[in-house]
Design brief:
By secondary structure, this protein is mostly helical. It is 75% helix and 0% strand. It is built from 19 helices and no strands.
């Protein structure tokens, strides 16, 4: 009936007809017998009709006398009748579209300073609905759409604990897309609002700075980051891991890596000073133990009896012994670090057991039967 009325040219020039179209189409969209597509289409027609009514009559008395409730109802309908309903049905694209259109209605109501019952007004940003919209987009594999809505929240500087994901997800997205300016901006905000999450921010910064950079060129990138963040656990530990992998890679077997070995020890000690973890202590203990074995093997290869040969062999033996002794306190530190973990990961369990094996092996070399028995017992208990 309303369509037939508005099909008459003179009637289409009267604002009231458009109000009734909006009202009736919105009511028709509440019919549960209709398909989701039909419901969405009816609500879209209703919204356009209400906007046309207000354009033709800015005072919009028919809306005003109802405290603009038809528009607020349309906002709720898009959010719950379409968005929430679709999300519960795992229709993530439908949920995103419903939430998105609810925000469109919200923004229209806010931009036009419209009040609801008892003078209620929307705030500039509907943080909850914006969050739902972003989540639905990401779950629907529409990352670019999700970024748009998370960015609205970040631009508003939301900082409650529940919004941590906003900054983490955006930082990861900008890093992936190599958007340096946006990445640095969101990283700074994340650090400002969530300083206790520094390990995550540092890990992202490291990934961003070293992405696509091979070894040994990547070490210069780490040095730049260390200059900006001296003593940072994540940075020192990651740098140490990179060095460890490089030192024992096939590509450098014939190269002189003594400088890298010295640097690795310095880095791991710095990491442990910042935070004594299972991973850091085990890595350093494992390196020092392996380095000891390497030097002992090198010394055994020297068969000459010339003074220089004898001297070299003696130096290697002494260095091997020192490296093995140096490994002991770090291997021992793994145990209290492991004991302090409420829910240790499998990798931490493996590292703990291997640290016990290293200690057993060291004391076998030192012919300390008591210590060997002690660590054999601990190894068995760890199995």
């Amino acid at each position: 009936a309303v369509d037939k009325y508005l099909a008459v040219e003179k009637n289409a020039k009267k604002p009231e007809g458009w109000f009734y179209k909006g009202y009736l189409y919105n009511q028709a969209s509440k019919d549960s017998a209709r398909t989701d597509v039909e419901i969405s289409a009816l609500k879209a027609e209703a919204f356009e009709a209400f906007k046309k009514y207000r354009e033709m009559d800015p005072k919009s008395p028919l809306l005003a006398e109802q405290n603009n409730s038809p528009l607020f109802d349309l906002y709720m309908g898009y959010s719950t009748e379409i968005g929430v309903k679709a999300y519960n049905k795992k229709d993530l694209n439908g949920a995103f579209e419903g939430f998105k259109k609810a925000l469109d209605v919200h923004d229209y109501i806010y931009a036009n300073n419209l009040a609801g019952a008892n003078g209620y007004k929307f705030t500039a940003l509907d943080t909850t609905l914006t969050t739902y919209t972003a989540i639905a987009a990401f779950e629907a594999k529409r990352a670019d759409d999700g970024v748009v809505y998370y960015k609205k929240l970040a631009d508003a500087n939301v900082s409650d604990p529940q919004y941590l994901d906003v900054y983490q997800v955006l930082a990861d997205q900008y890093r992936t897309k190599k958007d340096k300016a946006a990445f640095e901006e969101i990283l700074a905000k994340g650090r400002k609002f969530y300083p206790t999450n520094e390990e995550y921010w540092m890990a992202l910064e490291v990934d961003n700075a070293t992405q696509g950079v091979g070894k040994p060129a990547v070490f210069a990138k780490y040095d730049e980051l260390l200059a900006a963040h001296p003593g940072n656990y994540v940075l020192s530990y990651n740098y140490g891991v990179e060095l460890y992998q490089y030192i024992y890679s096939d590509s450098v077997k014939a190269a002189d890596v003594s400088g890298y070995k010295t640097k690795l020890v310095e880095l791991m000690k710095s990491a442990i000073a910042a935070k004594s973890t299972v991973e850091a202590n085990f890595l350093l203990a494992n390196f020092l133990y392996n380095n000891s074995i390497d030097m002992a093997d090198e010394g055994r290869k020297i068969k000459g009896v010339k003074p220089d040969d004898v001297k070299k062999k003696k130096e290697l033996t002494a260095a091997s012994t020192k490296s093995m002794d140096d490994a002991i306190p770090f291997a021992q530190a793994v145990e209290p670090a492991f004991a302090g973990l409420a829910k240790p990961r499998n990798s931490e369990k493996v590292n703990f057991k291997q640290s016990l094996v290293i200690l057993k092996n060291i004391y076998e070399v030192k012919k300390d039967a008591t210590k060997v028995a002690e660590y054999e017992k601990k190894i068995k208990a760890a199995e």
